[in-house]
Amino acid sequence: MNDPVPADHSQDDKTPAKRPIAVALGYERERDAAPRVVASGRGRIAEQILELAFAHGVKVRADADLAELLAAIDLDSEIPPEAFAAVAEILVYVYRANGLALAGWEER
Q: Is the pTM of this model over 0.90?
């Protein structure tokens, strides 16, 4: 999914739309035991995170519940164990989108 998810306008006109949210993860094998939150924001900041991702060819996946969970984590902190399964699913998506089969992926 490389299209930003628009704010939810399904509410009635009296309820403001929910602001978009974006979270970016990073991982350094030598340093990290788990992926870290490297950027997080709502509204315009979320839009800027998405714009940078798209501009650099970073694959984006929409998961509002996971984004809410990860946005509550301090920057540069590892993701909590309860997010591991969801993040693993996203990594599988990214590997497939990039044409990298896990069986053929070489350790560096």
A: no
